[in-house]
């Protein structure tokens, strides 16, 4: 939502300063790209602890699973 408000205010400021429509469109497109990348990086950092927890959980599960198959194979 903040990204959208930023782009809206940015476009209004460009119109008020007398920038042409083409210049405004290019500036808003560039601003959109920058804000989209910044938003994705923010989401990545926000999700990083959960992704690390999932990776550790899968690693423990695989270690436990291979231990059980080795036990079954040797103790039969």
From TrEMBL:
The keyword Transmembrane helix applies. This is Envelope stress response protein PspG. The chain crosses the membrane at residues 39-61. NCBIfam families: phageshock_pspG. The gene is pspG. Keywords: Membrane, Transmembrane, Transmembrane helix. It comes from Photobacterium lutimaris.
């Amino acid at each position: 939502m903040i990204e959208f408000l930023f782009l809206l205010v940015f476009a209004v400021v460009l119109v008020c300063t007398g920038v042409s429509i083409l210049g405004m469109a290019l500036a808003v497109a560039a601003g959109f790209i920058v804000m989209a990348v910044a938003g994705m990086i923010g989401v990545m950092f926000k999700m990083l602890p959960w992704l690390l927890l999932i990776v550790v959980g899968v690693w423990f599960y695989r270690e436990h699973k291979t231990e059980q198959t080795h036990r079954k194979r040797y103790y039969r």
